[in-house]
Specification:
50% of the residues lie in helices and 1% in strands. By secondary structure, it is mainly α. Strand 3 and strand 4 form a beta hairpin. Helix 12 packs antiparallel against helix 13 and helix 46 packs across helix 50. The C terminus is likely disordered. The chain has a two-stranded antiparallel ribbon with strand order 1-2. Strands 3-4 form a two-stranded antiparallel sheet. A two-stranded antiparallel sheet has the order 5-6. It starts with 10 loop residues before the first helix and ends in a 6-residue tail after the last helix. Pfam families: RPAP1_C, RPAP1_N, TPR_RPAP1. Its main location: nucleus.
């Protein structure tokens, strides 16, 4: 048995198997059958092959009649796609009807005569191979039927053709038609059929049968004979028969065969087309019809043209397609539409929104801008006439397979984002570009692009990532303000708003809340995180390891390195968590330190560097400084793990001019090194470097005067000097001998209290070097241009002197007289003369124009600002006349006030002299502007940053005023103004300023000297005002003047109460105190808390009352809070002081909110409101709320701060009143106040519907009603349900004048107005209720009530009943009543 071939066997093995098989003579398992033609049946394998002698083959032996076709298989021709078979005719029957025997066609087959064919030998050539042909060369005589032959084969065939003397058949063309004869191509089928026998388009000669293979003698004769026979047959047929036969023939043939038959005619006609068209007077034109022409269509007419609309104009192409072009054998016109001229650009303005388009530089193009096409801005399909690319098209291009296109798209998107964040688009765009891109997934597209293999795409992706994350100007702003007062402390750039999904968190179980609060535990996807926080979403995509790989392995270009470092700096500014992740990323910081902060490098020349690797980079030093600012632990790890001490020594030991770096880069690197050291020194770390680098610091400090005298001043040099002075200030504070108090708090326990290694003797020589620098800068104060060029240098000098004297005063081993004498010397020689200079007054005058508090437009959120991507960008934050502008007086004046406060605190004798600075008119005007009623600035990241610095100036000025008022109370001026500003500032302070709020509560808010009204007739004025407004003579013992006097005496107790109830978070307070007091060992970090809202609410004076209410509502406590009466009494006293003397402090609290807070006093328990002092205070505050000018602003329907629903509060208030009031008049007055007619009917329905029993306790006399009775009776009530409740309460006796006179009069007025109303617009239900109520009134048995209801006239609180009565009914009412009663009598109804 023969084996089968196996894999791996060669051809030799296969041939051996074949020979063995043939030798055995076995029958094959498979027979190969050659299938014949479709009509010839199967081939007989057993029949021997015919001998072919290539002679004449005769078929005389064939029968004359055709053989039977049965049982041969039926013929089924494949129909043409364009000509389907008729449905009513069977193809088999039709084929049998038209089939002819082979004898009718093949009677004689003659062998081709080749005797006359010339034999040509190859032409000798001197080259071994034919010359190389390029595509750009024009090929002549290319065969139209070349098919898929290679270019080389086509050239060989063309060369052979040119060598022969006999021209090819395809070059023979038919004679041109005579003039005036129309081409067959331009005629309809019907016209062609009518002209076939006679027209000029007749058949002058054969086209398919040429006789080329016959002998030379009879070739033309045989071809002509065949041609004449064909013409005779055609002449004998009608045109309709010719068309029908043609359609049937085309339907039976294969379309590929038809195309093959048409191709010779196509080539022939193509060559003669130009001559024909030139002879036509109208030029070339093609008319396409819906019918099939009689003659075969040429291949020069594309198949697509047969389907076009005849009414459509011919496609005008800029070039004529040539069939010689590569891959242009078939012209597809619909694919060549893009080669046409662009549509005309619409010039008219329209109100429709048009798609934004950008050029390759990211600039927004106007809709009607007309740019040339060679700029490459028209390669898009939509709106082809407009230049530029839309965001969608750029987004699509970023997914291209061509790397250059991906890089170009990312580069353009980066430019678009940069321009959008810079505010260049303004209001020309609808919506936000950044929001649109982020919603489309641009963030993750950038992350995917970072994983690309092409360096250009990676560079463009990093550039786009920097443009997205790093807002323009943010880093410059923070760097320029680093040397300000507390300028190193910044807010984290992370979203402050809660997730939108947390709005309904109360409905979720606690486990779900924990998952939402901690994304890592919930495994939230990056897309979910990025929707609320872009930075968190990016960190979840393993961005940091990829950036480390790019820096360490790929060694990108300098621009890419700077972009990556900028992105890392932005990630570190996000939060402490993000900074920790950057620090802990494997080998990331190690790579940055090794590659971009080397201790040795080759000298760098001026100009762009080819590479930043192994070259010091200021951005890398800044990254370390920002990381160290996040927390003291990170700073300690950086110093210990990456040997930053030696690198700081390396970069600070040399002056910038001596470094082998460009001067600007060297100065920036030196500035960042000073700042990094200053950040570490603010934690009390790296102090030992001071001894090592003391000569370097002295040399740099001695060179400052020379650098200051250089004109014009270089900004980088000024920043370096300011950074040096800031470092010296922190090192000076480190010499303080104050040790931190032990604390059980976690924040305090984690901080080590190691003593500083710097002693006072090591820094005592710095002041003689810094003070001359300050004097030199103050000489430039009268010259604004030169003063502004100094930047933060004067501010840094003042802050150093402040730290110097603060540390000097805390040295226990030194004589106090030394520093006191030095302070006097400094004041007399420098500070006091400075106060009287006119240029300082101009700085005070410019406070209002640069204040973000007085100019809310500075803090408007930038158009592209997103809640999920925080930046400091704002619309007005970069102006010169703004807080962060070059002409801002805030940094210098804040530092000056800081120095004055330190000197006044240490040397009490200088307090009154230094306090003269508060008398500056510009400062007083600024305070008045801050207190004026205005719109609050928008709460944005930039406003939080700017307002924090502005609040520093206000706080320092107010503390200085408090010190001056304490030392010299008689000389204190504008104390009322200062106290008003203290109250306003207390409710504005942001997180991170807990120490400032605590100090204000301790010293200023409840400072007796800040209440001058107590000694200037304010008490008597309060009593006199009450008499004028109330018109009665109240007992002087309980008047408002006496209550205010008692409150002034109880100010210490009031302060203790508010210190207890306005307490801040202890950890935050300790951290803030350590930072402001200079306790370096207790500073946890330089990142402030996220500024979600101010530290204290606007209604902070009511906080004790709110706490009492919540404690009483918390049933889990069981016992009432201790000292409830004292707490409520102190809070009411302070609110009365503010209502009387500082009403602007409560402007932010609506009157309705104040009323709700007063109601809380009655809801605490059942006995508190009965206390006489509480009664007096609440009654006085209620009278203040009921003043006409305040009553107009009392709106109970608006949302109130801190209150979910006033109707709910009022319902609980009614329930409590019904339970424990016992007819208390003050309690009843508060119940009646919300029942005024202009308030919601829900409140009145709650009383008369659900708590009607409370009416018996509402015995408040009409004379004690705090508001006018008309407020309850006008306008008439229109709520039918309430009117029915009024009537029911009157009829049932639940409402009578004995125990509820006020509401009795109110109900009487509304019911009387309703029953006698004649409003024709009333509904039928209302009319029926009115008639029914009047009928019941007429039938009342109580004559008094019936008389009151029918004869009511007007409300009058002076009368005992509260209203006037008609002596007799008016005629109209009498007539209406008679009509109603007469109808009742006619119906048989009698009065009982």
């Amino acid at each position: 048995m023969l084996s089968r071939p196996k894999p791996g066997e060669s051809e030799v093995d296969l041939l051996r198997f074949q020979s063995q098989f043939l030798a055995t003579g076995a029958a094959p398992a498979v027979q190969l059958v050659k299938k014949g033609s479709r009509g010839g049946g199967n081939t007989n394998l057993d029949q021997p092959l015919l001998q072919d002698h290539r002679d004449v083959v005769t078929l005389d032996n064939l029968p004359d009649s055709p053989p039977a076709l049965v049982p041969a298989p039926p013929k089924r021709a494949r129909p043409s796609p364009g000509c389907p078979l008729p449905e009513h005719e069977d193809p088999e029957e039709r084929l049998n009807r038209h089939d002819q025997h082979i004898t009718a066609v093949l009677t004689k087959i003659i062998e081709r005569d080749t005797s006359s064919v010339a034999v040509n030998l190859p032409v000798p050539s001197g080259v071994a191979f034919p010359p190389v042909f390029h595509r750009s060369q024009e090929r002549q005589g290319k065969s139209a039927t070349s098919g898929k032959r290679s270019i080389f084969a086509q050239e060989i065939a063309a060369k052979r053709t040119s060598e022969t003397s006999v021209p090819p058949v395809r070059e023979v063309s038919t004679p041109d038609p005579p003039d005036g004869a129309a081409s067959c191509e331009a005629l309809t089928p019907r016209e062609q059929g009518s002209q076939l026998p006679w027209g000029s388009c007749g058949f002058q000669g054969p086209h398919l049968v040429t006789g080329k293979g016959l002998g030379s003698k009879n070739a033309e004769q045989e071809a002509q004979t065949i041609h004449e026979e064909n013409i005779a047959k055609l002449h004998a047929m009608a045109p309709e028969e010719i068309l029908r036969e043609q359609q049937q023939l085309l339907a039976q043939l294969d379309p590929s065969l038809v195309a093959f038959l048409r191709s010779p005619r196509h080539t022939h006609e193509q060559e003669g087309e130009k001559t024909t068209e030139e002879q036509r007077p109208g030029g070339p034109s093609v008319e396409v019809t819906g019918e099939e022409p009689i003659v075969p269509t040429f291949a020069s007419e594309p198949r697509q043209e047969e389907d076009l609309d005849p009414r459509a104009p011919a496609l005008a192409l800029p070039v004529t397609p040539d069939k010689e072009w590569v891959h242009m054998d078939t012209v597809e016109l619909e694919k060549l539409h893009w080669t046409q001229d662009l549509p005309p650009l619409r010039k008219k303005r329209t109100q429709e929104r048009m798609q934004a388009r950008f050029n390759l530089q990211g600039e927004l193009l106007a809709p009607d801008v007309d740019l040339p096409t060679h700029l490459g801005l028209h390669h898009h399909g939509e709106e082809a006439e407009r230049a530029g690319y839309s965001l969608q098209e750029l987004f699509h291009l970023t997914r291209s397979q061509v790397s250059q296109q991906r890089a170009l798209a990312l580069h353009v998107l980066a430019q678009v984002i940069s321009r959008a964040q810079a505010g260049e688009f303004g209001d020309r765009l609808v919506g936000s570009v950044l929001r649109l891109l982020l919603d489309a997934g641009f963030l993750f597209l950038l992350r995917f692009s970072l994983d690309d293999r092409v360096d250009g795409v990676i560079a463009a992706a990093v550039q786009a990532l920097r443009a997205l994350l790093v807002a323009p100007g943010d880093e410059e702003l923070l760097d320029s303000t680093f040397s300000w007062y507390r300028g190193a402390l910044v807010f984290p750039l992370m979203p402050s708003q809660e997730d939108e999904d947390d709005e309904d968190e109360d409905e979720e179980p606690p486990a779900e809340k924990i998952k939402r609060k901690s994304p890592e535990q919930g495994n939230r996807p990056p897309s979910d995180l990025a929707r609320h926080d872009v930075i968190k979403g990016l960190l979840a995509t393993n961005l940091l390891p990829r950036l480390r790989y790019l820096l360490e392995v790929t060694c990108p270009a300098p621009s890419v390195v700077l972009d990556i470092l900028a992105v890392l700096i932005r990630l570190a500014r996000h939060s402490l968590e993000s900074a920790t992740r950057v620090l802990e990323c494997p080998r990331l910081i190690e790579t940055v330190v090794r590659e971009f902060l080397p201790t040795s490098w080759y000298p760098m020349r001026a100009g762009p560097a080819p590479s930043l690797h192994r070259v010091p980079c200021a951005a890398a030093m800044k990254l370390l400084r920002v990381l160290a600012s996040a927390g003291r632990n990170i700073a300690a790890r950086l110093l210990s793990s990456f040997d930053l001490r030696s690198r700081l020594s390396r970069f600070l030991a040399e002056a910038p001019q001596e470094m082998a770096l460009p001067l600007e880069e060297a100065e920036a690197l030196s500035s960042e090194a000073f700042r990094l050291w200053a950040v570490a020194a603010s934690y009390g770390q790296s102090a030992e470097l001071y001894r090592e680098l003391y000569p370097v610091l002295m040399r740099a400090l001695q060179a400052v005067p020379e650098e200051l005298s250089t004109q014009p001043a270089r900004p980088l040099s000024m920043q370096r000097i300011a950074s040096l002075l800031t470092l010296l200030a922190q090192l000076t504070l480190a010499t303080s001998s104050t040790t931190p108090e032990p604390s059980s708090d976690s924040a305090g326990a984690s901080v080590s209290a190691t003593p500083s290694s710097i002693t006072w003797t090591q820094v005592s020589g710095l002041q003689p070097l810094v003070e001359p620098c300050l004097r030199q800068t103050l000489k430039l104060l009268p010259r604004p241009e030169m003063w502004q060029a100094l930047g933060p240098v004067p501010t840094a000098c003042l802050l150093f002197l402040d730290a110097y004297y603060q540390a000097w005063s805390q040295q226990p081993s030194l004589c106090p007289g030394d520093w006191l004498q030095d302070m006097e010397r400094l004041s007399e020689s420098l500070l006091l003369p400075l106060l009287h200079t006119p240029t300082l007054g101009s700085l005070w005058d410019s406070l209002g124009s640069c204040s973000p508090l007085c100019n809310p437009q500075f803090c408007v959120r930038a158009p592209e600002a997103l809640p999920s991507l925080v930046s400091l960008g704002s619309t007005g934050g970069r102006l010169s006349l703004s807080l962060a502008g070059s002409a801002s007086p805030f940094p210098f004046l804040t530092a000056l006030l800081c120095l004055f406060n330190t000197l006044a605190r240490i040397h009490k004798g200088l307090c009154d002299q230094l306090a003269a600075i508060l008398a500056a008119p510009g400062l007083q005007n600024y305070f008045l502007q801050c207190l004026a009623p205005m719109a609050a600035p928008h709460f944005t990241p930039f406003s939080a940053w700017a307002l924090r610095h502005e609040y520093h100036l206000q706080y320092l000025a107010l503390i200085l005023a408090q010190k001056a008022a304490t030392v010299q109370p008689d000389l204190a001026i504008n104390t009322a103004l200062h106290h008003s500003l203290v109250l306003a500032l207390l409710s504005r302070l942001l997180p991170g300023s807990e120490h400032l709020a605590h100090e204000l509560l301790l010293s200023c808010v409840f400072h007796l000297e800040f209440l001058p009204e107590r000694a200037s007739g304010g008490l008597e004025a309060a009593d006199f005002s009450d008499r004028l407004s109330l018109g009665n003579n109240k007992d002087s013992g309980c008047g408002r003047g006496a209550l205010l006097a008692q409150a002034c005496q109880d100010l210490p107790s009031i302060r203790s109460c508010y210190l207890t109830h306005c307490s801040l978070a202890r950890a935050s307070l300790l951290a803030s105190q350590a930072s402001y007091r200079g306790e370096l060992q207790r500073v946890p970090g330089l990142l402030l808390p996220v500024p979600k809202e101010p530290l204290l609410p606007t209604d902070w004076p009511f906080l004790p009352l709110i706490h009492l209410y919540h404690q009483a509502a918390d049933t889990s406590l069981g016992l009432p809070p201790a000292d409830t009466i004292g707490t409520a009494l102190r809070a009411l006293q302070w609110v009365l002081v503010l209502e009387s003397w500082r009403p602007q402090a409560l402007w932010a609290v609506p009157p309705a909110a104040r009323l709700a807070r007063l109601m809380c006093v009655f809801l605490v328990d059942s006995e508190l409101f009965r206390e006489t002092p509480v009664q007096h205070l609440v009654a006085t505050l209620l009278a203040r709320l009921c003043q006409p000018q305040v009553l107009l602003d009392l709106k109970l329907d608006c949302p109130l701060p801190g209150l979910a629903s006033f109707p709910d509060l009022y319902a609980s208030f009614l329930e409590h009143f019904e339970a424990v009031s016992y007819g208390d008049h003050l309690f009843g007055a508060l119940v009646l106040l919300p029942l005024q007619r202009r308030f919601s009917v829900t409140l009145r329905l709650a009383l008369f519907g659900e708590h009607v029993g409370a009416l018996r306790a509402l015995g408040l006399p009409l004379t004690q009603l705090p508001v006018s009775l008309e407020c309850y009776t006008e306008p008439p009530e229109d709520n039918l349900a309430l009117l029915q409740l009024y009537f029911r309460a009157l009829v049932t006796g639940a409402l009578c004048p004995r125990w509820c006179p006020v509401l009795y009069a109110v109900a009487m007025a509304h019911v009387n107005s309703f029953i006698f109303s004649q409003d024709p617009k009333s509904s039928e239900e209302t009319k029926a209720a009115r008639r029914s109520m009047l009928q019941k009134t007429w039938l009342l048995a109580d004559e008094g009530l019936r008389h009151h209801l029918l004869h009511y006239k007007l409300p009058n609180s002076a009368l005992p009943e509260g209203f006037e009565l008609y002596p007799q009914l008016p005629p109209l009412r009498q007539q209406y009543l008679q009509q109603l009663t007469s109808g009742m009598l006619q119906n048989g109804v009698s009065k009982a």
